[in-house]
Amino acid sequence: MNMTLLNCDCISAFDKIPEKSVDLVLTDPPYNLGLFMKDRDTNLQKMRSNYFGAAGWDNIDEETWKKSMDVFFSKLAHVMKPKSSTIIFMAIIKVGIIIEIAQKHGFYYKTTGIWHKTNPMPRNMNLHFVNSTESWIYFTFGGRTGTFNNDGKMEHDFIETASTSMSERKRGSHPTQKPVALMTKFIKLLSNKNDVVFDPFMGSGSTGVAAKILQRNFIGVEIDSHYYQIAQKRTSEVEL
After folding, report:
1. For residues 39, 136, 230 and 62, what is the CA-based torsion angle, rounded to 10 degrees?
2. Nearest to 86 by CA among 68, 96, 99
3. pTM score, two decimals?
4. pLDDT tens-digit series, residues 108-124
5. Beta bridge partner(s), residue 197
6. Less Cβ crowding at N or C end of the chain, within 10 Å?
């Protein structure tokens, strides 16, 4: 399988990706919640040393974030194959913004789903409801249908897995790391063997690990050299 990992910002990376070459985008971009979370009554920073709200990389203002996502979808449209698919994780309060931006660039909105973590971190349990869900948005490009390998079975837009295990998190060490089992679910459904899976916000490489296990080609982009090196190591250690 062809595994291409790039250590740069995703906008620069688009110049290295052929047009109409990507079958599936599966990615988890910054949610633009850093400044918002600083004013929240939360105990997460006490529970996790690499809490994303304190990292600084998610602290841009709202308008700058919107403009950056607009540029992102504009560039993304050029590398998508006809009838390709995109899954993008997003904070639920930002879903409407992402849908509006993506549609402007030719992405067809399919649905918004929920990832339910069966073993969420019990943050704020004595303050309010424990946060056990994240939303994801499903688009197709160049057509209203795409690959959907459901084998005739009903697939709900409510997906349950455990959150990233401690053993898996130690290998990735990213504050917003997604479990390989979750990424595997999407890759199985929305792509085929030898397809190209693209993660422009790769982090520590969970999407790449799942893609390699499932014998898909993979392109991953990560701006942070520390997480890029972790992603390189994790993907190289996958045995087929």
Report:
1. -40
2. 99
3. 0.87
4. 999 999 999 998 877 77
5. 24, 218
6. C
> Please, are residues 112 and 78 in contact by the beta-carbon 8 Å criterion?
no
Structure token pair of residue 218 = 């993979």
Sheet-wide strand order for 158-161: 3-6, 217-221, 196-199, 22-27, 80-90, 133-141, 107-117, 158-161
Cα(204)–Cα(169) distance, rounded to whole angstroms?
9
Separation CA 177–CA 203 (nearest Å)? 7
pLDDT > 70? residue 170: no
Architecture of domain 19-190: 3-Layer(aba) Sandwich (3.40)
pLDDT tens digit string along 31-78?
887 555 556 555 455 544 544 445 555 567 889 999 999 999 999 999
> Residue 45's closest CA among 118, 121, 132, 130?
121
**Quick check: 86 and 22 in contact, CB under 8 A?**
no
Phi, psi of 189 (to 5 degrees): -70, -40
Contact present, 234 and 5 (Cβ < 8 Å): no
Task: Summarize the confidence of residues 127-152 as an average pLDDT.
Answer: 94
Rounded CA gap, 231 and 202, in Å? 8
User: What does the block give as tokens for 98?
Assistant: 């992402």
Locate the domains of the chain by residue range. Answer: 19-190
Q: Are 227 and 203 in contact (CB under 8 A)?
A: yes
Summarised one tens digit per residue, pLDDT across range 176-188 is 789 999 999 999 9
* Structural contact between residues 161 and 180, judged by C-beta atoms closer than 8 angstroms: no
Q: Give me the phi and psi of 164, to 5 degrees please.
A: -55, 125
| Chain mean position to CA 221 | 12
For 120, residues 6+ apart whose C-beta sits below 8 A from its C-beta are: 130, 131, 132, 163
